[in-house]
Amino acid sequence: xxxxxxxxxxxxxxDYGDEKFLRESEYADICSTVAFKLAKEKNTxxxxxxxxxxxxxxxxxxxxxxxxxxxxxxxxxxSGEFLRETVNRILDEDENYGSFSLGEKSVLxxxxxxxxxGPLHIGHIRNSIIGDTVARMFRKAMVDVVTHYYVNDMxxxxxxxxxxxxxxxxxxxKKPDQAVVEAYIKMNRExxxxxxxxxxxxxxxxxxxxxxxxxxxxxxxxxxxxxxGITETLNKIxxxxxxxxxxxxxxxxxxxxxxxxxxxxxxxxKEEAGALIIDMKKLGYEKDVVVKRKNGTTLYVTRDxxxxxxxxxxxxxxxxxxxxxxxxxxxxxQDVMKALGLKAPEIVFFExxxxxxxxxxxxxxxxxxxxxxIDRVYVEAKKIVEKRVDLSEDEKEKIARAVAxxxxxxxxxxxxxxxxxxxxxxxxxxxxRQSAAYIQYSHARxxxxxxxxxxxxxxxxxxxxxxxxxxERKIVILLSKFSWVVEKALRTLRPNVFADYLMDVASAFxxxxxKYPVLKADSELRMHRLALVDACRIVLRNGLELLxxxxxxxx
Length: 555
What we know:
Blueprint lengths: L1 H12 L8 E4 L2 E5 L1 H9 L3 H10 L8 E7 L2 E6 L1 H14 L12 E5 L11 H19 L3 E8 L4 H13 L7 H18 L4 H12 L3 H24 L6 E4 L2 H4 L2 H11 L3 E4 L2 E4 L10 E4 L7 H15 L2 E7 L3 H13 L6 E5 L2 E3 L2 E2 L10 H19 L4 H22 L6 E2 L2 H4 L7 H20 L14 H11 L1 H11 L3 H20 L7 H24 L9
Parallel strand pairs: 5-6, 5-11, 6-7, 11-12, 13-15
Antiparallel strand pairs: 1-2, 2-4, 3-4, 8-9, 9-10, 13-14
Helix pairs in contact: 2-3, 4-21, 5-19, 6-7, 6-8, 6-9, 7-9, 8-9, 11-12, 12-13, 14-15, 17-20, 17-21, 18-20, 18-21, 19-20, 20-21
């Protein structure tokens, strides 16, 4: 609805209706700052320009209630009809509220893509949660979205894991990814003690790239086991991928050869000591990039370029979620793709995660498995839920799972990707602070009010704009912004923008509930406020689902 209001404002401004000059304001529902730009050009006062624009403004909109010039700002206030139609639309559209057309056909979101040589750690799940949330938002914008886990099945680490599996086997009683990493660790230690084994690692890598049947079967078995365990972990936090795309696919289907030919045709390759190298100095980099070794095998970057050639041919837009330690590789990939005359991926770089007791660093051996963190948060959530509700054990467990998953997902997405974060489970599970539990509790409270209304035989809902006070008006304007905020988050690829918005909705609803009676209000006012409560419930539920968090009805 707010997107429609914005369109009407732009139309009313006519020649001055540029969206880049529109701002949210505490003094209006939206304001235009265009007068400041025009005043600078005309060497006059912004207030005079704004007065002149408003004086000559004509508009035909049922949604714009008032237009004012205030100290150079042009303030627009939504009409009572806009408020009424917003609430009615939310109630009518229900689970579909917030959907809109972004106007894009197909988007590929690649996220997680951790090496399948062991379990995910807490840094990986920040990647997963950001990527999954971005994909959910694209779907809300009616875009055909596909999510990929790009499986690095050709690296040295995978070859070592395969040798370890072949030599030591694995403990089948353990989670598959954990069993694979144990085989990898054993083999890696042996290689450190016996460097001659490096030759065996290289032979296995060459055999797999060349399609040797025995090597292919071995790699497939080991990587599939690791992916099975990784998928189990991701399922715990409501993350799933549409497709697992194996790196080796692009060697076998000819895309690697194609991208190398394209590099040759544009004179971007040179040969040194039998290896093929991209001359990155032409693109402003100091260090060159090897795409084919002397022994004829390719590197990760080669297959990644081939993958992105494939993406160009199959998707209108593609987004990669990468850790900040991949910034150089990511920028190089973008620049090489552009040099080849192809679309480059949009990349969301995220900073890493630490726990209150210290930073997580795999280099220092502090490996924090995601499973360990997820299980710890669930245990703590269960303790809290046990104290708060008088329900069956099954219901308590379900609520605890929802609260634990919500705590992780919300805290990992509410911080802007480019900022480092510390995950503190005690704060993430605090029902009284800005947490997923607070939003979930707000939704459950709205559900409880509506259940009581039904039990008391007074379930009628009707929003009456003439009864709408200033606090209620602010809530309706906030609810109207759902799709507008989603669009803003997608434009910038910053899902934290929507996380902040949903927290604002929860806070506004709780302030309203603590200040104004609902069920005890007189008949007309009760119907009006129940309609507002139901609208808040729908927006909170739809918003939580967009963040991959369950909107529980009892807490």
